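WARN retry 2 of 3 for item q-0093 after timeout on previous attempt; input resubmitted unchanged.
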Amino acid sequence: MTTPTRGQAPPPDYDWDAEQEFDFRRYGGALAARWWLPALGLVVGAVIGYAVSLGGGQVYKAQATIYLGQPYSASGNIQLQNLQTNPSTVRQIVNAETTLAAAAKASDLKIGQLRGHISTAAVSGNLAKLGQTPLVTLTVQGSANRNKLRRATNALAAQVVQKVGDFAQRKIAIFRAQIASDERQEAAIRKQINQSEKLASAGGSPTDRLVATVLISNAQQRLAIVQQDRLSASQLLTQAQLIEQARVVTPAGSQKVTARSRRNSVVVAAVIGLLIGVVAALAWEALAPRFVRPAD
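OK item q-0093 returned
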């Protein structure tokens, strides 16, 4: 069966479904004769890839981890829902213009170097249905100075802690004031007990000793109440400080991010150049007559 050539009509009995023979010898000869085209494409592609990688610039990333805190009621046994329990709060705070301005001032950066380069994400593992407050990562990425980028990230994290931690801070202040009041009352009661004990041991009349004994008993009862109140306030203070209060778990530290791998850029560009060179070598016979005029 004869294979029709270009410009020639196929014979009536030509089988279009028959497998066509691929002339490896012809194409192999074309590659061998013009081997310099794939080699040139390989070299030029590698050079272009290297040049592109040099112009890519260096990118840095700084990341801080923030614990938003879990608010509880005054009794300390009922979870509350507020800004701290919503991870979207962090994104809204760090992208606000006032927050960006404060972070830019603290890090000697421009607001434009921060805007659009900030991302937040809740750390996996929290159960939103149970009202658990997740850890949130705050990431700032850019080509600015790595130390300035780190300071900007820490400034943003501090802004978040300040804005969401007001509830816990007020509780902590109240519990500290309560503990201080209990300590003053305890000191006064102990002083009263000591005076009553001296009166009882002074050898006065039976009535005086009875009055002193009653005073001591009443003072001890009040002292027990005050001590129990101070213990409860101390426990709630510890809970507010360690569980309810927002804080930065891990401050930001800048690290280099490879925006464009130099090795990958060189390899990919070299392979593309090689393929272009192979195609050019195979199509040389068909394309060369169109661009090269025969001599007169």
